[in-house]
Design goal:
There is one protein chain. By secondary structure, the chain is mainly α. It folds into two domains: 49 residues; 206 residues, no CATH class. The protein has eleven helices and no strands. The longest helix has 40 residues. InterPro entries: SPATC1 (IPR026715), Speriolin_C (IPR029384).
């Protein structure tokens, strides 16, 4: 009898270990898939290089800013530069869109909802870089945080080392003008560049481009639907800044007349 009980116990333990092993394999597979996807977005080999937002995939929010000052403000104190919950005239204009019922939003898988949150941050960074470096077709290695350094790099002749001051003045002017416009919503490059990177690393980005004919594709381009998704997905401690990124993306999309997500 004891032998039978021992056998049953061992089988149960074996089944449990097998399930845990399968779960670990699944988790590792998802991590590798996410890394491969981001690398493909930047046209690089995932085994040798990473995109600008992937290079610190192990970063934590506490490590993204000096002395953790922003983390303390974010988690314990009221937000000073985040957009308020009240919708201003500019925000109302940026968020105009057809109504989508909640059933469409609920059709998203939980993983897709999280990836959409990261995609919003990723698309905003991409939009900012495109607005500053309008003639730069390849932006590998460019991040919002290193825009000032990249302006100098782009304006410096690779052989002579001479700086094109006219181009430098124009790019710097475009950068400051953009920050001034986004600043009306509370955007601060020193704070929110790192926050956007944190959101991408935490939530990931979409695995593939949506089918243009699918219902989900229309949801991806709907500001109101994405706003509800952010509210329902992001924890309260990060919500104001996450909504700020969403608002800035909607504003830039409205200004250039292009879809929210550029592929």
């Amino acid at each position: 009898m004891d032998s039978e009980e021992s056998t049953v116990s061992l089988r149960q333990q074996n089944d449990q270990l097998r399930q845990e092993n399968e779960y670990l394999k699944l988790t590792l597979g998802l991590l590798r898939e996410n890394q491969t996807l981001r690398s493909k977005l930047y046209g690089t080999d995932p085994s040798t290089a990473h995109g600008p937002l992937e290079k610190v995939s192990a970063v934590t929010w506490e490590d993204t800013l000096d002395d953790g000052c922003f983390t303390i403000d974010l988690l314990k104190a009221p937000h000073r530069t985040s957009s308020p919950l009240e919708t201003t005239t500019a925000k109302k204009s940026a968020l105009k869109s057809p109504h989508l019922d909640n059933d469409q939003q609920e059709s998203y898988l939980p993983q897709v909802k999280e990836r959409l949150v990261g995609e919003i941050a990723f698309q905003l960074d991409r939009r900012i870089l495109g607005n500053v470096f309008q003639e730069q077709h390849r932006l590998y290695g460019f991040t919002v945080a290193n825009i000032p350094d990249k302006i100098i790099q782009v304006c410096t002749h690779p052989v002579s080392g001479k700086v094109d001051e006219s181009l430098r003045t124009r790019l710097t002017g475009q950068y400051h003008a953009l920050l001034e416009r986004l600043g009306r919503f509370g955007y601060n490059a020193g704070r929110h560049a790192s926050f956007a990177e944190f959101m991408v690393n935490t939530y990931g980005i979409l695995r593939q481009r949506p089918d243009p004919r699918s219902a989900q594709n229309s949801c991806y381009g709907n500001p109101a639907s994405l706003q509800r998704l952010v509210v329902n997905t992001v924890p309260s401690t990060l919500l104001k800044d996450a909504l700020l990124l969403h608002t800035c993306l909607c504003y830039l999309a409205e200004q250039d007349g292009k879809p929210l997500f550029l592929w």
